[in-house]
Design a protein that fits this description.
By secondary structure, the protein is of the alpha/beta class. The protein has helices spanning 2-10, 12-31, 49-69, 79-104, 115-146, 159-168, 203-213, 255-289, 328-340, 361-369, 376-382, 395-398, 418-422, 429-441, 445-461; strands at residues 150-155, 175-180, 194-198, 219-223, 233-239, 242-248, 295-301, 307-313, 386-388, 414-416. The relative contact order is 0.07.
Length: 463
């Protein structure tokens, strides 16, 4: 159901573009009819179909671009807010395409673009796209009503809460249920499509609801004039004309997730191609230096607290590496001794062993330059990791997380990250977690680009 809904919405900008091109084509043919208005014989215009269609394609890309800039195609935009944004985008689009037609005449468009085509097409575009979106909304609402997805409203025991619930419960196209606060412990909130908390709640209770929904696709809204959570990402939304706050783990939502994923795919492919000679040389060096496999595989915890296979170049002697496939119980025993010794210079959740005797000569170089991380580019390509994100940790390390630290699991772990660049190995885990949470809550594609370039600088300096 979710995949169908997201896929349908992702097609929206493409369909918008096709509708715009179709409208311009039809308007062109209408303009060629000289007796369109009864009693008036219009002259045959000197317009070129090829130029008109080139103009149509340009205008369609402009509309889609403006829509993306103005967040028209957000995956979860309320209907009222969507049409307000749509009107603004259409007006900006109309001004832009008029400007292009006027200044492009005789330069880009030799025959010029008919003013009739521009005006009539613009009107048809507004009503045509409006009509398309109405049909889309109707189809979505029918799908929602037949789906198993439900919305649950959690109300506090106040008169204001009951009034608000009565007002908003008819504003949803999904099946809706209602519970009181006292029934909350017995309900599996993560199974619902949306949770709406109405009324004043204690901070601990709001935090409880948020923590129960943060790993699922459940959306969490809060309607209240009282206390709101302050240490999470939130955005105001209208639910049946009542303002609510939607609590989120991250700014990575909707189209932001798509842009980050596209950035990861393109970036990982480029880096794999560029670094392939280096990876081949490293593989040969590992084989010459010590016996054992080239790669080290391990289960790490990724997005949503799910395990994934983590890969890197082997930097330790095989018989001293932890894990059933490697050194086994003896390696685990040695690791425990090293953690308990003075060699552990960091301690806490993430120990760091100084002058680790388990590391090979080649491994020391790989770790110092971070070249042992290169195979993780394939994890990025597969979608289990990202180029930039929090450090991926072991299951036994994640078990020691405090409640607020578990928000690190709301996005894919990264090869590099905000904390890894600006703190490297000098930070304790609490400081590292705070830096990574700052990244999660303030993500932008430009931040990812900046961190990647900063990573190259840190690696080249040998820090």
């Amino acid at each position: 159901m979710k995949q169908l809904n997201v896929g349908f919405r992702l097609l929206r900008p493409i369909i918008h573009g096709l509708i715009i091109i179709l409208i311009f084509s039809l308007t062109y043919k209408i303009r060629l009819v000289t007796d369109l208005i009864p009693g008036i014989q219009l002259h045959v215009p000197l317009i070129n179909y090829r130029e008109t269609m080139m103009y149509a394609r340009i205008t369609s890309f402009i509309f889609i671009g403006l829509g993306i800039i103005k967040s028209l195609y957000e995956l979860h935009k309320p209907i009222q807010k969507y049409f307000q944004t749509f009107t603004k985008v259409w007006l900006y689009w109309l001004v832009t395409i008029t400007f292009i037609a006027y200044f492009g005449q005789g330069f880009v468009f030799f025959f010029g673009i008919s003013r009739f085509i521009i005006v009539v097409s613009a009107g048809f575009v507004f009503f045509g796209l409006f009509f398309f979106d109405q049909i889309r909304n109707y189809i979505e609402s029918r799908i929602h009503k037949r789906s198993d997805h439900k919305i649950i409203i959690v109300g506090s025991d106040t008169l204001e809460s009951y009034k608000a619930i009565e007002h908003i419960k008819n504003g949803f196209s999904f099946k809706t249920e209602f519970i009181r606060v006292k029934d909350l412990p017995d309900v599996e909130l993560e199974k619902y499509f949306m949770v709406v908390a109405v009324g004043s709640f204690e901070k601990e209770l709001l935090q409880h609801i948020f923590e129960k929904t943060r790993f699922s696709y459940t959306r969490f809204y809060h309607i209240s004039e009282g206390f709101f959570l302050e240490d999470v990402v939130y955005s105001p939304e209208a639910i049946n004309n009542i303002i609510a706050l939607e609590y989120k783990n991250s700014t990575l939502d909707g189209w932001s997730l798509i842009w980050k994923r596209l950035f990861d795919i393109v970036g990982s492919l480029v880096l794999i191609v560029v670094s392939s000679p280096i990876m081949i040389a490293i593989a040969i060096a590992i084989k010459i230096n010590s016996t054992g496999p080239i790669f080290f595989f391990q289960k790490r915890v990724g997005k949503g607290n799910k395990l994934f296979t983590f890969i890197k170049f082997r930097s330790m002697f095989t018989h001293l590496s932890t894990g059933g496939k490697y050194g086994g119980a003896e390696a685990e025993k040695l690791y425990a001794q090293l953690i308990a010794s003075d060699a552990n210079v960091r301690g806490h959740i993430l120990p760091k062993i100084k002058d680790d005797p388990r590391v090979t000569k080649v491994g020391k170089f790989l770790r110092k330059t971070s070249l042992d991380e290169l195979p993780q580019l394939f994890c990025v390509l597969w979608g289990t990791m990202s180029l930039v994100g929090p450090r991926p940790h072991l299951p036994n390390e994640v078990e020691k997380y405090e409640l607020w630290q578990k928000r690190l699991l709301s996005i894919n772990p990264g090869i590099t990250g905000y904390a890894m660049v600006f703190g490297r190995d000098s930070l304790d885990f609490e400081e590292e977690a705070k830096l990574d949470l700052y990244y999660i809550q303030n993500w932008s594609i430009f931040m990812d680009i900046y961190i990647l370039f900063a990573t190259f600088g840190v690696v080249f300096k040998g820090k």
